[in-house]
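Here we describe the complex-level prediction in full. Unlike the single-chain runs in Section 2.1, the two entities below were treated as one system.
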Amino acid sequence: MIQKKSFGAYTAKVLIWMIVILMTLSCLLPLINMIAISLSGSSAVAANQVGLLPVDFTLTTYNKLLKDSQFWASFWISVQRVVLGTLINMFFVITMAYPLSKSKFRFPAREVYIKFVIFAMLFSGGIIPLYMVVSGLKLTDTIWALVLPGAVPVFNVILMINFFKSVPESLDEAARIDGASPLTILVKIYLPVSLPALATVALFSIVGHWNDYFSGLLYMNKASLYPLQTYIQQLTVDITQVTDAEQLKQLSQMSNRAFNATKIVVSTIPLLVIYPFLQKYFVSGIVIGAVKE
Amino acid sequence: MKKITKLLAVASAAAMLLTMVSCSSGEEDFTAGMTEEEKAAWEAAANDPYGKYPELVTYTTGYNLTNQGSDVLAGTPYEDDTTENNAYTRYLKEVLNVQNENAFEAVSGADYDQKVSMAIASQNIPDIMHVSNYETLVDLVESDLIEDMTEIYENLACDTVKEAYASYGEGNSPLDAATFDGKLMAIPKTQLSDGQDFLWLRKDWLDNLKLEEPSTLEEMEAVLKAFIEDDPDGNGQDDTIGLVVHSEVYGDYPNNTFAIDNVFTALGAYPNIWITDDDGKAVYGSVQEEMKAPLELLNRWFNEGIIDKEFATRTNDDIVGLISSGKCGAYIGPWWSPFNQAQTSTYASDDAEWVNVSCPVGDDGKINAISTKSYAGFVVVRKGYEHPELAMKIVNVNSEYSKQDKSDAAKEIKENQTLAYFNWPLYCEVQPGNNAELMTQHIVDVMDGNADESTLTTEEQSYYESAQRFLEAEEAGKKADSADYSQYMSRMVSINKMIDEPANFLVPSFFETTDSMGSRWSSLEKMEMETVLKIITGEKDISEFDSFVEQWKSAGGDRITEEVNEAIAE
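The structure predicted for the assembly as a whole is:
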């Protein structure tokens, strides 16, 4: 495409780049700082001397982490949760979004369902009723408590509905003329052209499940069953009042920041690994050219 | 923010309680079908402070963990211990023949409190549990979910426990808080009296500059000035700052290390607490006329750089960093400050020497301090539980028996206290308010040769050994282990000063919260702290303090003050 570059367009481009670079830095620098802290000696960390490069480089905290059995147990619970939770989420998102993306002529009750879904997105029963339902169903202390309460991510359903709507109706019609059942149309036509949206939604689920610490705290009554982020969160709880001598010891060890940074760094690795693999699906315009009008 | 979520949790738990059906089905008779002899054996166990049950008694409870992370146990003999099988639970099993089964477990503090709220909400409280706040206790009492402990306490509390409660004095007994209509509904966990805050100074800097230890506000100002201007670390660079100040300038006395309540109290202001005015009514300290003098002083100190210019934006870690890196040699903190990394790191890396000074003092030459409340939580027993006396017996073991026991099992507990991952399954030790001072006195007696080592309790003995190790290392010209440094400096140096230079203690007239506080207190506190920061940093003139007071009163302050007075009258 040939475009005449005016001065205005040029400055706009520079501005946009600057903003993008600033945003990138604001995400990247804290991460680099965390990595640097995890690799630094603890006295340098306490003195706040660590910036973007490690001071007194050491791997002791990583060595220590290898021996921390609860960390790895929690890590494993989180992995299970992500796999199971994402599969369940994707199943519900797809099977719910597809019919709801059809017009009300083909699916008359559509409006009722949509309102129901949106209502559930805006209002919730609150923590305590939720807890009572989960504990009443005897799900507490099981992996199901972590994946079932959020089995239908409504926001993702709406994203998916909108994406399915943008798929040309003619594709659907053509397939129906060829005698395909709705299920076949969904699996053979809609899903392959929806890979970018599916990758996005899957990523939301993965990140959401991996980063969520609160449901672990709420539903797990044994610390040994905590998923990873809950385990990390509880290490950073403040001690506000010293009531007995045992707490003094904790005070002195509390700012073991290098070790905590190590845990955080290691806990982000799985997500950093997953991103590049999903990246290739973020290609738009797959349906361009599928229909000739 | 934390406070709000806590209040919400409490409020919602309270709401749930109202809709709850009573879950007590009366006393469950576990003695049915027993022979007379068996019954007598159970009876005897139940009526003896340390009676061992004829058969294993299992109780459900909520377990308080520390935030250490279980990795502290790695490589120790306790690696495979769990919350249902660790040194503490094994000990209780041996002494009382009881075993805990955890309905839930969580780190002490907000996490644990939330579990308690959830347990109450789901109508399923454990047989025995610790609750950390007064509001929850009130809820439990009002909804009739917990046992009356009056008789059990009378019959079974050991002397240590009874004396400990008595040590708080008539008006401030922890038992009062747990008494409703003359009935004792819980066993209160005592709050260690925290003593006064001190001014912690780098002794080596004082020596370098040939300065005396300060005492009054003026002397304090002179020392801080010298710390900034006269190059106390002798490195030829102008790189030191004066007094570091917490971004929450005051509050939570004396737990808020780096906060400077003492500067306010030295001038007769008592911010952030309820005090009694001349008419005998409760008023809020932060909105009194006395606040103006310290605020004006701090504003001047800020302008002259005597307090850290960037204090309003510093985090706790930033402050620790300033001190650790030797840029600052003065802060205000409690007796256990040597446990803070700010001190341990300077001890290990530099030749820093710290000293705690009674400064700034009020008119009579003493520090004006604020008392903490006498209770730090409550142990409650589910209504209808067949062994309600068990709670009292466990508290007896925690507070007395285990400390005098010198067996191997008790040694395990001592070791676990150093590792500090597990707590007692029932998180409640009852100690006299001045326990820290008492223990130090006992240890000093032994060190001076006035008493024998065998007179020490197991806890005291571990501090004694720590002190010995520290002194030996120092004598050999080596650096002691930082844990030993912390113990020695806190227990032997700092507490000794607390004993030698007592402070004036003001007991706040009210500690708890009232109804309107739930919705308004956090915004009032925010308004207060903003005004204080603005006045100190000079963004607002001191004359605007009066308009803040007006605004505070009309925005709910007056109503809350009324409620507080009503609550006190009750």
